[in-house]
UniProtKB/TrEMBL annotation:
It comes from Pedobacter albus. Keywords: DNA-directed RNA polymerase, Transcription. Belongs to the RNA polymerase subunit omega family. The lineage of its organism: Bacteria, Pseudomonadati, Bacteroidota, Sphingobacteriia, Sphingobacteriales. This is DNA-directed RNA polymerase subunit omega. It catalyses: RNA(n) + a ribonucleoside 5'-triphosphate = RNA(n+1) + diphosphate.
Length: 108
């Protein structure tokens, strides 16, 4: 859990639309690329979180044996404080860290 915090803001940031369509010359194509990348990031984060929380799963589903686990709560809070996948995807896209191509443009 000691991962360095990225420089990506946790809040909404006003963006210039022309910055988003600079790489593709089409705002809608850029949004498709960003949304697909955000889905990938979201799925990776979900798998990582479920993997960490699976360590705390018990085979007994007895309500009397369920207790508050501090480590489990801290892991959940850590993931809640991370930037949203959409914000990460936008940052990666604007910084050229996302590989994308459009096969229909390449055929012409």
């Amino acid at each position: 859990m000691n991962t360095p915090k990225p420089a990506i803001p946790n809040t909404t940031v006003t963006r210039n639309v022309h910055d988003l369509d600079r790489a593709t010359d089409n705002i809608y194509e850029s949004l498709v690329v960003i949304s697909k990348r955000a889905n990938q990031i979201s799925n990776n984060m979900k798998e990582e979180l479920h993997g960490k929380l699976a360590e705390f799963a018990s085979s007994n589903d007895n309500l009397e044996e369920i207790f508050e686990n501090r480590e489990q709560i801290e892991i959940s809070k850590h993931y809640e404080r991370l930037p949203k996948p959409t914000l990460i995807a936008i940052d990666e896209f604007l910084n050229g860290k996302v590989y994308h191509r459009n096969p229909s443009k390449e055929q012409k």
